[in-house]
């Protein structure tokens, strides 16, 4: 066989291995940043996943709000494979049509409440990187102070971590980039007291996903806009988890009527293909100049066409409307069951938090997994629900019943 044929020949498929075997290899090969995997998944299609032992699961977490169109969506697959067969990477010394088109679409989403507002995009590879770019952008205002929210999560890099509230995440890596202070989430009066003419930016998640799907309402976003305007500070909205239709609109903040100075995207934008974006509007759009920031892979044409494909399917299949309708169905069905351990359902669209009356979310999620349903427990008394936007009414009803079956049935289980 010639060298060329040797290189082009397909490698032999690895011998099938059990989850136990893969998990043992995982522990030896990967750093212990996440603990042992709960399952080893080998295939996905639509809203379903299969593990290495052949068991099927219905995915109500979507890779933590990433797989907006589910697994192996044909439109995304076609876009990615078509682009890779044409042009995969050129570096940011150059541009591609897909990069420009995606930037225009994202700018349109961010400025929808004030059409015609100038906007520009910096592409990255993740939500953390998008927030890191936004953090650097705020420093170019000539101010350094940032006001963030209690309960916030913005990522794990040093800059993103500096505006993340959880002390357990922060303390091992201090000192972090300053000058950051935290105020109670949703408290407009506290925010007004914290912001003065020295503040560069206020950073807010429209809904705090990692804090248990906590929604402060649109009026808090409107108050933050008034406060930042009054002091010449930037309003920075982190829509990494809440954007791209997850909460029933392109931005969860859209209903507030506010146009932010900075908005960050990621997660559902690429349906699993790594991509993030930092969008700045108005005067903030001109803050970053050549040499201020950069990335090797950000905005590559494969990621860009993935993002365009996601947008196209959401529009074509009216998934914004579906997100609202199906999210409301989940909340209504869950509350109608009258389970004594269910206190309420928070959130919007298909980002929901099932709030429990006892700290049994972790145990309940484990029972759900055993029964073939994927969800997670960001807080001891909250189950987070973030299925693909292509989920059906039957999937929603099946999940609600699965949760009711998985909840502890008596005091012994709760205790």
Write structural notes for this entry.
This protein is α/β, with parallel strands linked by helices and 415 residues long. It folds into two domains: 3-67 and 318-414, Aspartate Aminotransferase, domain 1 (Alpha-Beta Complex); 78-316, Type I PLP-dependent aspartate aminotransferase-like (Major domain) (Aspartate Aminotransferase, domain 2, 3-Layer(aba) Sandwich), CATH 3.40.640.10. It contains 15 helices and 15 strands. The chain has helices at 3-8, 19-29, 62-65, 74-84, 97-110, 127-139, 158-162, 167-170, 188-194, 218-231, 301-316, 319-336, 361-370, 393-406, 411-414, and strands at 41-45, 48-51, 56-59, 119-124, 145-149, 180-183, 199-204, 234-238, 262-265, 276-281, 342-348, 351-356, 373-374, 376-379, 382-385. The protein has a seven-stranded mixed beta sheet with strand order 4-10-9-8-7-5-6, sandwiched between helices. A four-stranded mixed beta sheet has the order 1-2-3-13. A four-stranded antiparallel beta sheet has the order 11-12-15-14, covered by helices on one side. Helix 4 runs antiparallel to helix 11, helix 5 (97-110) packs across helix 11 and helix 12 packs parallel to helix 14. The termini are far apart. Residues 1-13 have low confidence and may be disordered.
């Amino acid at each position: 066989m010639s060298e060329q044929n040797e290189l082009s020949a397909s490698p032999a498929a690895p011998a099938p291995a059990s989850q136990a075997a893969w998990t043992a290899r995982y522990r030896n090969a990967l750093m212990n940043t996440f603990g042992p995997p709960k399952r080893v998944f080998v295939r996905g299609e639509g809203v379903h996943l299969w593990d290495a032992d052949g068991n099927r699961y219905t995915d109500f977490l979507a890779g933590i709000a990433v797989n907006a169109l589910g697994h192996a969506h044909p439109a995304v697959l076609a876009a990615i494979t078509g682009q890779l067969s044409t042009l995969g990477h050129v570096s940011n010394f150059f541009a591609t049509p897909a990069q420009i088109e995606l930037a225009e679409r994202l700018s349109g989403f961010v400025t929808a409440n004030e059409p015609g507002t100038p906007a520009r995009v910096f592409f990255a590879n993740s939500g953390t990187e998008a927030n890191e770019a936004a953090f650097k952008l705020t420093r170019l205002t000539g101010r350094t102070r940032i006001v963030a929210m209690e309960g916030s999560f913005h990522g794990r890099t040093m800059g993103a971590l500096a505006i993340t509230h959880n002390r357990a995440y922060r303390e091992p890596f201090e000192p972090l980039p300053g000058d950051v202070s935290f105020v109670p989430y949703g408290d407009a009066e506290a925010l007004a007291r914290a912001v003065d003419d020295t503040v560069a930016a206020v950073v807010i998640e429209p809904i705090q996903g990692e804090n248990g799907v906590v929604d402060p309402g649109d009026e808090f976003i409107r108050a933050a806009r008034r406060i930042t305007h009054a002091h010449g500070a930037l309003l920075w909205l982190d829509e990494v988890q809440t954007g791209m239709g997850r909460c029933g609109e392109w931005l969860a903040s859209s209903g507030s009527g506010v146009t932010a100075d900075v908005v960050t995207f990621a997660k559902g934008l690429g349906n699993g293909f790594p991509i993030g974006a930092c969008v700045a509007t108005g005067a903030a759009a001109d803050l970053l100049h050549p040499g201020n920031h950069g990335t090797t892979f950000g905005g590559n044409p494969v990621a860009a066409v993935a993002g365009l494909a996601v947008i196209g399917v959401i529009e074509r299949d009216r998934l914004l409307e579906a997100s609202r309708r199906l999210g409301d169905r989940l909340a209504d069905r869950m509350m109608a069951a009258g389970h004594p351990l269910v206190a309420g359902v928070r959130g919007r669209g298909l980002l929901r938090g099932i709030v429990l009356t006892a700290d049994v979310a972790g145990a309940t999620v484990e029972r759900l997994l055993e029964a073939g349903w994927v969800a997670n427990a960001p807080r001891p008394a909250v189950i987070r629900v973030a299925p693909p936007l292509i989920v059906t009414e039957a999937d929603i009803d099946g999940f609600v019943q699965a949760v009711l079956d998985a909840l502890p049935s008596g005091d012994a289980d709760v205790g």
